[in-house]
């Protein structure tokens, strides 16, 4: 019985050690370049998707995910929505052609790039100033006798959600930000096409 438990533990440890490098892979120039190249190849697939209602209100869902759950993972959400769609295999093949073993690997790379971009933008606009402005707005609201307690409660909740959303969007390691910085203009161009 003890040997069996030890074997199970060792097998789980090996699986974890194999998975860790994939999860902790740095955002290398090669990885960013492959992601950008994949976007070019996925453009025609994106045009096909636009003619469907596959993603529905995904923009709203992404915003809610960032605000309520503290996560900003738009690419992962897109891949999950596409999982059961007829275009999934074509999508998986396209990202595989760029060295991503699974669509989820591609999505995780894209999400890290997006968070790094958001973090750079927020730093550019001084996130501390934005937080101070929101704090001042909250104080004005709290001191306004014309606002009911119910309205205050709802506004507090909305402000907290907005702050959580900002934090989730800008939650990027400094290494990712520095890796993405030289690609900022190319990424903006690719995302705007």
TrEMBL record:
Residues 1-24 form the signal peptide. Keywords: Signal. This is DUF4175 domain-containing protein. It comes from the Bacteria.
